[in-house]
Each structure stands twice: as C-alpha cells, then as structure tokens.
Amino acid sequence: MTLIKTEALVLHSIPFQESSSIVRIFTREQGKISVIAKGARRLKSSLRGLLEPLNHLEVIYYFKSTRDIQTLSKVDLIRSFLTSATDIETDIWGLALLETVDHVVQNHQYDHEIFDLAVAFLAQMDDHPELVQLIYIRFLLALTKTLGYRIGVDNCARCQRKLTAAIYDPENAQLICCECGKYFPPESRLNERELAFLKNRKDVNADSSIRKSRLVNILIHYLSYHLDIRLKLKSLQILPEISI
Ligand SMILES: [Zn+2]
Q1: Does the pLDDT value for residue 16 go beyond 80?
Q2: pLDDT in tens, 157-183
Q3: Which of 51, 123, 102, 54 is nearest to 234 (CA)?
Q4: Rounded distance from Cα 36 to ligand 1 centre (Å)
C-alpha cells in the first residue's frame, strides 16, 4: 500500500452507507480513480463540502493496485470553481467541462496534460463568467489537439482548397469547402467569423454572428466520432439550443 499525494478534480460523488461518500476524482498523477471518504457526510467531518464537483483539491490517499476503490486520507482545497447560486450558467459549463473529461479519459494516457488543461480552463471560466461558453469551445479545441485529433480548419478535407467559410460534414466529421459541400443543407455552413474563431486559438471575443451552440454541437460531435464514444453531456441537456 502506497500513500499518494496529488492534485485532483472531483467528478462525481455519491453517498455510501450512513455517513461516507464514494467519490470519483480525476487526479493529476493517476488519472481517474474512485476513493471512499469515510465519514465525509458527518456534520463535523473536515471533508464536508470539499468533495463536490468543481473543487480543485490536493488529496492524499492510500493506493493498493488490487483495489477498485482507494481510501481517502486527507483533502485540502486549492480552489473552488463553483460560483454563487446566482450564476448557474457558469457552473453548467464548468460541469460540462468535467463531464467531457470524465468521458474522454479512459486510461492513463495524457493525464497530466488533460488535467492541467481542465484546471486552466475552469480557472478562465471562473475569472470570465461572461465568456463561459466561448471558453468551453476553446477547451474542446485544446482537448482535440492534446488527444491528437486536431480539427482541420485551414484546408478543405476533400479538395485541400483553403477554407474561408466551411461546411461541417457530420458523416466524416470534418470541415469541407462550400463547393465540396454544396449539397449539404444550409445549416451545415459555418460563416467566416465562426471559422476564424476556430482558427484563432486565442480569440475569445465573439459577436452575434458566432453561433456558439452550433460550434459546441459540432465539436462534441467531432470528439464523439473520432474517439468512438457517445459523448452525451447531462449537464447541457437543460439548455434547449444544445442538441447533444
Ligand atoms: Zn473542397
């Protein structure tokens, strides 16, 4: 049995027995693991309130490779990304980010990179709640790049022509030029501003010509296709404009 100390993000927490919780955490050192937090729901427990999604923690736990669930020993809060109850939208997109991570991290590949990415983007959301949806789109773009599936935004995936506007081809999950995609319905089209937003990785300003929900839908579809997973985000289902 080894004692492990690492940073972690809380993904999910469920009550267990009378006063304990079983918590799924994404750790920087060991990827996704489950821990039992004994007595965490007792009124006087030092763990109370800490094991909630959107908390960035430092955790210490006993690790035994033969066990599915490890035993949590100590928790310190590094930062809470949970906003006040009046700003539910920021939390929704923060939870969507965590859910995306939860779906995407299947093994211990890229754990450090994805962990740092998640923390950095959650911090951005917390600092700029007015840009939260755009920051989520930026996160998805960065995630596809980290996973090795960067979306081709410069040239048509079929004829290689330089893209100015583009069509998203859902059958092959790629961007193609308007000529190659002329038989696709008009709603498949991304306008110049939307494409420019995808190209410029630092731009977080957007005017009304950028349909943010449309970009979210496309990138979620893109990730699901290339990772061969069904990325259905419960946290976004209450938003009518998101079709995933
Ligand atoms: Zn083309």
Answers
A1: yes
A2: 999 999 988 999 999 999 999 999 999
A3: 102
A4: 53
Confirm whether 242 is domain-assigned.
Answer: no
Question: For the whole prediction, is pTM greater than 0.85?
Answer: yes
Percent of the chain with pLDDT over 70: 92
61 and 101 belong to one structural domain: no
Structural domains counted in the chain? 2
pLDDT single digits (tens) 88-146 = 777 899 999 999 999 988 766 668 999 999 999 999 999 988 889 999 999 999 999 99
Is residue 38 within 8 Å of 20, Cβ to Cβ?
yes
Using the mean position of ligand 1's atoms as its centre, give its distance from the Cα of residue 166 in Å.
9
Range of the domain at 154: 88-236
What is the domain-level CATH number for residue 12?
2.40.50.140
CA distance linking residue 19 with residue 167, whole number of Å: 53
Last residue of a domain, one of 61, 80, 99: 80
Give 131's DSSP letter.
G
* 162 CA distance to ligand 1 middle (Å): 8
172: CA distance to ligand 1 center in Å? 14
Q: Based on the domain organization, do 66 and 171 belong to the same domain?
A: no
Distance 107 CA to ligand 1 centre (A): 36
Number of H helices, E strands in the chain: 5, 8
